[in-house]
Design goal:
This protein has helices at 13-19, 37-43, 65-86; strands at residues 22-27, 30-35, 44-46, 52-54. It is an alpha+beta fold and 87 residues long. The longest helix has 22 residues, at 65-86. The structure holds zinc ion.
Length: 87
């Protein structure tokens, strides 16, 4: 899996848990999955509800790597459908 902020890859969920990765966090009303320790220690804090959230000064300013990954999945989906149509 990948850090949704910097895109760093880690091999397994077990490794990620051992290394202190976060499974999810909030940027305003948007939930993002997975942050590596170097990212979340820099930009996240514990919110009033106990959830990890982006610090106010970083809110809305982070360019997430997970959005890029979603776009790639979307493009792959189109390619697969295009092939099926031709065959
Ligand atoms: Zn990161």
């Amino acid at each position: 899996m990948y850090c949704s902020i910097c895109g760093t890859e880690i091999d397994s969920i077990d490794d990620a848990v051992d290394a202190g990765w976060l499974p999810s966090f909030w940027d305003g009303d948007t939930e993002h999955e997975v942050a590596c320790p170097s990212c979340w220690e820099a930009v996240l804090q514990v919110g009033e509800d106990g959830e990890m959230e982006v610090k106010p000064e970083y809110r809305g300013k982070i360019v997430y790597a997970d959005a890029e990954n979603q776009n790639q999945h979307y493009v792959m989906g189109i390619a697969v459908r295009f092939d099926a149509h031709n065959n």
